[in-house]
Amino acid sequence: MDLLKWFEVRGKSLFYISYSLHRITGLILVLYLVMHLSYLTSLRFGEEIYESFIATTVTPTFLIFDILLVLVGVYHGVNGLRLILHEFGLAYDVRRPILYLSYFLVLVLWLYASYKLYVFIVGV
Amino acid sequence: MENKDKSNMGRDVIFRIKRFDGEKSYWSDFVVPAQKGMTVLEGLYYIKGTYDGSLSFRASCRMGICGSCAMKINDKPRLACETQILQLNSSKIKIEPLDNFRVLKDLITDFEGFFAKHEAVKPYLIRKDDNYAEPVELIQKPEELHAYYDFTLCIKCGACFSVCPAAATRDDYLGPAAMAAAYRFNIDTRDEGRDERMFMVCSDVGVWRCHFAAECSEVCPKNIEPAKAIQKLRFQAAVHMIKKALKRW
Ligand code: SF4
Ligand code: FES
What is the rounded CA–CA span in Å between residue B229 and residue B175? Predict the structure, then answer.
């Protein structure tokens, strides 16, 4: 019962929604980390296996997942910095502008990173 | 007359109330003829007097002071006595008991644990020179008073606790109101009990459970900003714990 409450989004404000997104993106990043480490571990079974994994995933088809993953990472990082700032007892009174600013930063960083990824994988 | 201000006119509003009879929960709908200025609490009294005497809710002061009438109104915790029906702008009003509290009957929830948490943080002045036989006046400057004044306005309504995600998953978490009270006394220049209070504040049911969803500040009917108090308290707690560790070392 308590575990299910973990997934409830009770609050209506952007603060609470950001908090819930922080939790969800955190979970996604943990799952990704496990996948990522499994990937690297495949090196132990031979370079060819690793290379074949790379050949499958570092492709234009997988680009959309990479871009989404970057969004998740950027959101979790930027929002995390915002939380750290407030949890030091700082800047509480300007928490609303800082919240909006953090979303703006997420958008800018995400678009920039996605562009770089696109250039890297597809080429211009 | 045609020129009547529309907002002045009364209209029927449906109260959809979540009930609980000790075993099962269900919804009841009642029609309330709402007038301008009529509060949700008055609507509940109307229902109790007109349709169903068994409808249970808590209220006392009817003026936002006692903190007993907090309930979820249209999905947001509010004081029923300070929420005007027509200002909600809906033809149907959903009323539920507060989340994160055990429901006893209808809209009445169990506040024992909430008050016990409050007590646990020692929300009173602690002085080494307490002498009730010969009390001395404790002088304070206006700016020292203003530092904590807002936090004294808490009416223990439980709205903050009901939206707190940390309280949702841990029953024993102290919660925003208790920690705001701890902070209020910690920064009172007359107080000498910070160390005693910090024992609870730094424990695993204290400040470290807060992850700044900050919804408590959004719903607090007295705007006392409990989220602010907790973050400031967190900093105090960090300093306190580092000092303690250094002393031991
Ligand atoms: S801090 Fe605000 S919401 Fe919480 S109990 Fe006090 S008055 Fe109610
Ligand atoms: S009845 Fe006292 S606060 Fe509403």
Answer: 11
DSSP A25: H
* Partners of residue A99 in chain B, C-beta under 8 Å: none
| CB–CB contact A87 B212 (8 Å) | yes
Q: The tokens 């031991």 sit on which residue?
A: B248
Flag whether A4 is in a domain: no
Please determine, for residue B9, whether its predicted confidence score (pLDDT) is greater than 90.
no
* Residue recorded with tokens 């770089």: A116
pLDDT at B3: 46
> For the domain B6-109, what is the CATH superfamily, name and number?
Beta-grasp domain (3.10.20.30)
Confirm if B152 and B216 have CB atoms less than 8 A apart.
no
**Dist CA B20 CA B17 (whole Å):** 10
> Which one of A87, A90, A96 makes the best mutation probe of the B interface by having the most chain B beta carbons within 10 Å?
A87
> B6-109 with B112-248: one CATH topology?
no
Contact B214 A13 (CB under 8 A): yes
Q: What is the CATH number of the domain that holds A62?
A: 1.20.1300.10
Going by pLDDT thresholds of 50, 70 and 90, the confidence category of residue B8 is low
Q: Considering its fold, how many domains does chain A have in total?
A: 1
Complex ipTM over 0.95? no
Domain boundaries, chain B: 6-109, 112-248
Ligand nearest to the CA of B222: 1
Which residue from B minimizes the CA distance to A15? B213
Residue B2 has pLDDT above 60, yes or no: no
> What is the CA(B142)–ligand 2 centre distance, in A?
30
Architecture of domain B112-248: Orthogonal Bundle (1.10)
